[in-house]
Design brief:
This protein is mostly helical. It has one domain (2-51). It contains two helices and no strands.
């Protein structure tokens, strides 16, 4: 479980750090909203993965 949490948090940090300069440079609100929705979906998937009892 701690390994899944660590790997998930690293993935979220890497995704945010990779996509945030694009949003900042382009200053496009629609793109920012789409990326925010993608990050929220990633966090929901991480939460569901941590809640599952498969391991």
């Amino acid at each position: 479980m701690p390994i899944k949490l660590f790997a998930g948090l690293v993935a979220v940090v890497l995704m945010v750090s990779f996509l945030s300069p694009v949003v900042y440079k382009l200053k496009d609100v629609a793109l920012g909203i789409v990326i925010a929705i993608g990050i929220v979906l990633m966090l929901v998937d991480l939460w569901e993965s941590l809640q599952s009892k498969e391991d």
